[in-house]
């Protein structure tokens, strides 16, 4: 996620019924196939990544019926679900702790430790510094000999500017920045990663406890992942082989519905452009070179790509993250960051090349220089129909989250505050439907790169009210309140129950792995990160290094990073004018 996740926004779409004239919405979109990417018609030669992510069932969505009887009751599954119920207070307490920390990407010092300590107490061996990231860790539990190796995904980073008091139905930032020139809000869990990591950890622990109690052979691996909101942690870790050796990977993300599916996500490249100019007094601007002018021109020109160069399957968003400090100093350095999304890595590259050309045009027009760096890049997600069907059957049997009256009240207050219909929280399990045969784009996730290396399932549980979105203060209001607690407990059960089925039903796991082998036939995954890529990092505090047994810097990065300094010259105005006589 947090980006399917908008940095993990899981969107499991369902037809809302027939449109006028008897055509379903899905059929109308099919007829508009030229507007998006028709995955059903995509040939492997044209775009292998898109072809592998497509599914024949999408061609006849009305004829599909989700199978039942895949999820089996067993003493081990009952033990796992009971453990989650028994540990409810401890589990929701971990969620509350991480929510209160609200730490940003790559700096989740307290949050990663809290999640690791939870797993240590459940009998896991924990090692920090996965792939060189200080706040990433791998927790491992082994029981018996052999058995499947199952992976769970944990995230715990917050988002900037989304601070909000928990359980409050109107915008009320918990941390307000009292800056007279630039007021703002502190960070907050507006994507619900506090609940995401907590539920995944609870599921992993529950499976471990069930394995111990019922003599199951299994290895459970939990990957505490940093910087999901930047889509950095997992993409780089996959390229370093961190997820090698897994038989299956189970993922979830907070959502506005309780659903799973086997649709894909958008591939994405994150890129930051740095413009360098010459500073000078704003009152004597002649000869100055404004790097901010360049960034503004780039932003403006890139908007003109939308009509003729950006398909509905693509997304292009930007933010100026360094635009100067005060109006009477011409900004000497300015940075603008883009997320470039499309249906596959190949389509992303085509759009990215156009964005880079726009940056060069802006630099030329402003007489500045420009450089760019890729900060992250991921593939589109490879789905698994058989895995989603197993997950859905477990969700159906367990039932939706148990939302209290308090949870529904908060949801309706938030909807009223946001001008939305007061429908509350989604209290059903969504139907399992085939993905739309026309890919219309959406969010991205760094889980996608894992999915090309191991069979992966993703699902969503309703942490936020119907009609709202991830990456909002309203999600932060719910994430550690009654809605979030109910959603994460349900999510933990969905994950744990599905994992137990993979252990007790080897034929089911084999079918999932066979589908994975068939989908990836002829497709060679290669990281979308550029050669020589070094992930961005922050130096940890000494207390964190001591607690986790790490040294600084890790061997895979250059520290300190190379300084960015402008050496540009003032712009020439030509020969001086002679005085008039």
Structure description:
This protein has helices at residues 25-31, 48-53, 75-86, 88-101, 109-121, 193-214, 233-239, 291-303, 306-309, 345-366, 385-398, 405-417, 447-451, 473-479, 482-504, 506-519, 542-548, and strands spanning 37-38, 125-128, 137-143, 149-155, 176-177, 184-185, 218-225, 248-255, 259-260, 267-276, 315-322, 333-342, 369-378, 438-439, 456-462. The protein is an alpha+beta fold and 581 residues long. The strands form 4 sheets. It has a 7-stranded mixed β-sheet with strand order 2-3-7-4-8-15-9. It has a 4-stranded antiparallel β-sheet with strand order 11-12-10-13, with helices on one face. The protein has a two-stranded antiparallel sheet with strand order 1-14.
How much strand? 15-25%
How far is it from the N-terminal to the C-terminal residue, by CA?
71 Å
Counted by DSSP, the helix tally is: 17
Shape: globular
Mean pLDDT: 92
Layout of helices and strands:
Layout: H1 25-31, E1 37-38, H2 48-53, H3 75-86, H4 88-101, H5 109-121, E2 125-128, E3 137-143, E4 149-155, E5 176-177, E6 184-185, H6 193-214, E7 218-225, H7 233-239, E8 248-255, E9 259-260, E10 267-276, H8 291-303, H9 306-309, E11 315-322, E12 333-342, H10 345-366, E13 369-378, H11 385-398, H12 405-417, E14 438-439, H13 447-451, E15 456-462, H14 473-479, H15 482-504, H16 506-519, H17 542-548
Helix pairs in contact: 3-6, 3-15, 4-5, 4-6, 5-6, 6-15, 8-10, 11-15, 11-16, 15-16
